[in-house]
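Weekly sync notes, structure subgroup
Attendees: PM, AL, DS (notes)

Item 1: joint prediction request from the bench team. They want all two components modeled as one assembly rather than separately. Inputs as received:
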Amino acid sequence: MRPIDKGSWPTKDSHATRKRVFNDWTRAIPYLKGRTGRYCHLCELKVSNAMAIEHIKSKKYFPRLQAHWDNFLLICNYCNSHKLATITISPYKKTYYWPHLNNTIMAFDFRITGEIIPNRTYLTTKPQIDRASATIDLYGLDKVVTAQGNSDDRLKDRLEAYKQAIDRFIEFSTGKASIHAIVDNAKNTGFFSVWLKVFNSVPNVKAALIDCLDFHLATTYCFNSTYQPIPRNPTFTADPI
Amino acid sequence: MRIDKIRIKNFKGFEEEIFQLNPLFTVFIGDNAKGKTSVLDALAVAVSSFLRGIDVAKHESRNIEKNEIRIVTKDGQPLPQLPVEIHAFGTVNDISINEGWMRTVEKISPKKTNTLFVKAKNIEKVAEDMLKLSRSGHNVVFPVIAYHGTGRLWAEHEAKKTEYKKTGEGVSQAYLNCLSPKSSSKEFLSWYKTYEDEIRKFDQEKDKLLLKTFNSTVISMIPDNHWQNMAYSFAAEDLTGIFVTPDGEKEKLQFRQLSDGYRNIIGMVADIAYRCVKLNPHLGENAVKETPGIVLIDELDLHLHPNWQRRIVEDLKNTFPGIQFVATTHSPFIIQSLKEDELRNLDRKIVSQKDPKDIPINKIITDIMEVESIKSDDFEKRYSVAKLELEKIEAARPDNNLTMDDYVAVSKLLGSLLEEETDDAVYKAFLEKQNDSNDETN
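Output from the run, pasted for the record:
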């Protein structure tokens, strides 16, 4: 999951100090797209048009938060429709990992089987692993396609991204793919984490992926100068990720 | 005029739903009885609020009928659910109505209709202002409003002599029967008859131009120039034209002799074009191209061959670029011709994330229209087999560092797994080729 930075609450054109009103929260979509890219905040699926605003705290139980910038994520309809059947448990900041609050690259691992699991390289304690699992369950990120509900394309598309990333990796090792072409390919398929994992051992491609502006990574908080992921909340010693 | 969003509450089968509409074309799909036509009916109620401000067309306004109130049955007793609310948000005459306009039924009275209009005063006012301005001699661009229901062809069979059209104010004629789902070709036929006759007699440049615009619009909607030289035949009391058969032979045919497919399209297009020309004659040859408005079409695929279904959406968009269309369909070919944001599926909340035009027709039928197993979708099975292999490869490298050989193996496994699934024909061919060459090297 890409760690992102939504930035502060957008202000009005006429008053640089006044917050923009999001009573119609779909109006926040262009701001989120501009600041965090055209990929689902959770599953990293590339979405061009049909994106949804996720209210982290349900607008049904927290009507006051339905127009609140801090409560928004930009997600695909698959993640959204799965979430509709579940409720965020409070306190959400500690129960789950969030792409705008944590370094989620460290929290989740994208397996070559297409599954998303807690990343045991960085998550060492049971509470941390439970926390990652909670996020996965909340949005059905590990949902496997079934014959009945097969329009959930997240898994298939992730596998396709994997296939392309691996093919580019093989080509790159024999000098047949340029770094530019790889980054362009990654932009196209989406699933940044998949590409990062495949090219983890190739420093210059890895750097180019992390620096690619289209992915809008919160690089300052989440990667050091050698492009290693670093915890985003170092002062919170219990779980700095 | 444009509707961006509509909220429907306790109307027909809907408890409460919100639909966003595409500014150009929106197509609703869904199983029978899922509410496709109800959405159009609700939109008809919403757009008709505009007509409330047009005094001569006020009676065309459509109310929420008593039998359209949602009923919940409890202990064998039908309980009407109130309030019924149809709340639309959009733009009229370039004025954006942010708070929306609403039609409601709050209580049931023994009388026939009981729609409340109080919350639609804003849009009424816009319409009244437009009409006032128009009557004082200004050029005002009125929006066309039309609803073509599934009864559109049956209505034409009702024999009625084509009368000479009495002259009257454009708005009163252009909005006549505009929301009756049986809107028929009679109106434009009688106008056409009168108009052509008058042009012959008086030879007015402007009138000629409008008729020419109308003719070219109708003819342009018929593919491959199959219908040419349209004119009114006084002997046959009907529209006539030269029909070119696929073999290139030419036949003079009357409108009523054409097949249902042709009559359906010609009738519909001519009806819209006629209303455009009547509403905004001051736009001259651009009357059809520049008239805004909302047109609702139930079962867009009615009587059309798949080849025609594939192009009808594009043709309507090109012919009427200012009009917002909302249609329903059961046709996978129409679905395939849509852009990503133009499809609304009433069967499920999950909207496909892909452009329907990138999806092969078999996947449209299984994945979008949810027809089960026309081609047995065995992805689940094949995935679980591939997954075991992938897990093996992964387990052999606990440090997560896969070797080049591992990668080649993974790529091959994923390639054959995805070959049947990919929506991209070129990519599929590429995968096939890659698999072949893999086999050769092994």
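Discussion: DSSP finds ten helices and four strands in chain A.
Action: AL to compare against the crosslinking data before next sync.
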